[in-house]
Amino acid sequence: MSENGAFRRFFRPNAVSAASAENPLQSLLAAAESPQPQETATEPGAPVGATDQLKREMVEQRVALHRFLLDRVNLSFLDTMDGEELVEEIRPLVREYVRDRNLPMSSRELDALILDTTNEMLGLGPLEPLLKDDTIADILVNSYDQVFIERAGQLEETDIQFKDEDHLMRIITKIVSAVGRRVDESSPLVDARLHDGSRVNAAVRPVAIDGPMVSIRKFSKRPYTLERLVSGNSMANGMRLLLTAAVKGRKSIIVSGGTGSGKTTMLNALSSQISGRERLITIEDAAELQLQQKHVCRLETKPPTLDGRNEVRQRELLKNALRMRPDRIIIGEVRSEEAFDMLQAMNTGHEGSMCTIHANTPRDALSRLEQMIGMAGMPMSQISIRQQVASAIDLIVQVERLHDGSRKLVSISEVTGMENEVIQMQEIMAFRKLGVDEGGKVRGQFIATGIRPRFLEQVAEFGLQLPDEIFDPSRRLS
């Protein structure tokens, strides 16, 4: 492999053409960068294109430079350096590397190479530019040579590549080891987080048939508030007023929605309305909530060790949280038997607690909650379980990711009690779809159903009054 060819993007145009006679690979580069007649689709089994081949070679050479630097840099000081310090440390070494290999590079190209190398040493290598791009919401690594992103609700393929599966595995190991977790053949699935709170899920062989996969859900550096969701047209201002009163009035809330619908974002925004005088305990599989209060205690589950022992599940954390004098308990996502303990907490003096749950409708959310309570193995009849749910839950906030990629609060429903053996609910506000415009965007409007929630009298005790017009069905919610 030619090292000169591997750094194609750092060559000046005249340097490429001058060396082409001596280096066949550079001749190939010059041809690849020249205008070419349009070709038909590549047949199966055809040779890999020059651009893809050189892209892989560039990645390989960047990793080779990384290893060269690791041999020369004092590793004992590496963890104490920030990005700027490392740049100054490796700049003369990179110049030496480039000079010894006769790589003609401008000062700007050299700076770009140093930045790439710094990302490899201190950051997450090829993923660093994507992590720094605030317009990207999700990073989806399907394989070492295929990376997608989600921007503005739409998926896009990038030209980011790793050298090979081993290179990708090193990055995955770097992520999970930072939070005390592991991923290997015996434990091929893992949830983790980045230092900024972004959520990471990784799957490796043997469950990932085509090689390691990574999904990163990035979080905004600017904390989400209900006001910001209103300005982003994810909800109406009338909904904001209602939810603000519910949170401040210590109503227990479940945020329901499908995968990628914005449940955690909504939970973060709701929590922004909690008083800073309250003690909050958060419980999560991988800590990702961004609560803005000072008095927050965060608990995180722990996976089992290699011998299958010492696992700490959400249920144990919830039981322990009750001994920590919480004012409210916030669970990132209820998945299993911890639902029973959560309802017990809500029914015994911890009103105003919140959680998220995977469900497509408010009614489905209640059904899933019943099923998860049954997993606790408690000797309870179905009607007893439903009575527990009806007495503990006040509001169900349903969020949805629409087919155009936008995320909306589509329903706010109040749980009003039991009638016979059925939990009763009433929808207070909703988003009604009206169609699709020429650009493929979903058209719709936020409405009030005309029903006033029963808890209004209770929140009035906190001095919270809501304007009558937000419940008027003849008016469009602003």
Automatic annotation (TrEMBL):
Pfam families: T2SSE. InterPro entries: P-loop_NTPase, T2SS/T4SS_dom, T4SS_GSP_E_ATPase. Residues 123-404 form the Bacterial type II secretion system protein E domain. Belongs to the GSP E family. This is CpaF family protein. It comes from Aquamicrobium soli.
